[in-house]
Amino acid sequence: MTSTPLDLGHALAKIWYLARANRLPFITMTKNEQAIDVFSSFKLGPLHLPNRLVMAPMTRNRAGPGDVPGRVSATYYVQRASAGLIVTEGTQVSAQGQGYARTPGIYNEPQVAGWKTITDAVHSAGGRIFLQLWHVGRISHPSVQPGGGIPVAPSALKPAGQIMTAQGMQDFVTPHALTTTEVAGVVEEFRRGAANAKRAGFDGVELHGANGYLIDQFLRDKTNQRTDRYGGGALNRARFLIEVTEAIVGEWGAERVGVRLAPTNPFNDIADGNPAATFAVAVNELSRFGLGYLHIVEPLPTDPIAAGEKPDIKFFRRIWRGTLIGNKGYDLSRVNAALRDGTVDLVSFAALFLANPDLPERFRRGAALNTPDRPTFYAGGEKGYIDYPTLEG
Ligand SMILES: Cc1cc2nc3c(=O)[nH]c(=O)nc-3n(C[C@H](O)[C@H](O)[C@H](O)COP(=O)(O)O)c2cc1C
Prior knowledge:
Elements: H1 5-20, H2 29-35, E1 42-44, E2 47-49, E3 53-55, H3 71-79, E4 85-92, H4 109-124, E5 129-134, E6 152-153, E7 162-165, E8 168-171, E9 176-177, H5 180-199, E10 204-208, H6 214-219, H7 234-252, E11 257-261, H8 275-287, E12 293-297, H9 313-319, E13 324-327, H10 332-340, E14 346-349, H11 351-355, H12 359-365
Parallel strand pairs: 3-4, 3-14, 4-5, 5-10, 6-9, 10-11, 11-12, 12-13, 13-14
Antiparallel strand pairs: 1-2, 7-8
Helix pairs in contact: 3-4, 5-7, 7-8
Bound molecules: flavin mononucleotide.
The site of flavin mononucleotide (FMN) has 20 residues, from strand 4 and helix 11.
């Protein structure tokens, strides 16, 4: 039988699809596609993930004095070490990058030592763990800023609403707009945070570019009204993200760096006139690094979306050639469908991993799931943190 041009085109498209998804083409295609589900392994750069379930980053406000993560956090992460990959809670790269009480840092030696205890424990339990590098920008309050100072942002625009502080909910303040020179200083803070994460024994890092925090504030036209090279068109607004990514990749190599974006999440008073255009430019710029993954917080059907094309997960599958992690509101059947049709390579779970330390095993057995206890999400000590039961009790 001779191959027609149509057959050839189809075969090439198939090889492209498998290569894009990091799947090896020497396994027969039909068999391989059938084998893909949440329990199939995945090669993430140099890492072998035993399953496709990622523990999504979750702020839990349980760090000890000096914002050093403590032993209780080691227990929390070890309990969840059966995840294909753990992404830690957002971790500030500087004191100024902190927005809430008791979030851990990665900018001094005690914090590096605290995290090292955790990465050692997770590795001993057979897990893999990335640190999420975080700077909150204007989503902060003088009560958590060094010297009671004013938070920083791309522009001096006060977020609407209030922020949770140790003294209860308080109004946001008008942030200080970073000067062009000061922006370089923040890029350096991210670089140092990435270098510290390496010394702390992580397997890689994820840059928190989502949910209305500093990177997102630079990306969006609602929060970025700068007139220097970091403001204006989408390419300029993406410049900070790209410079930070470049700095982190310089420390880690691209394969161990992921980036998280949330193009449709209105959280933290963030918005953009045309998110599809903004994020197409940003992702196109990110594409040149060969990063480990892109992690997208997806819209729910009920989320408000600005005018224009909807930048949902399929949109990113079209424009991103590397590993893609989907997130938000998944259940097991949706995960498997999205993995099989190639929409995503991995899926992350937040609330369900919080409440089910043995989530992969529960999925495997089709077991009932614990219900997340919202009042203890961001406070509560060991309660709601390390006391969720496993199937084994
Ligand atoms: C308690 C809690 C803390 C969170 N903290 C972070 C965080 O530090 N960094 C981040 O990127 N997203 C954070 N998120 C968002 C989650 O990673 C995720 O995008 C969201 O919960 C939707 O996923 P889910 O439907 O699986 O819960 C947090 C979510 C929860 C519930």
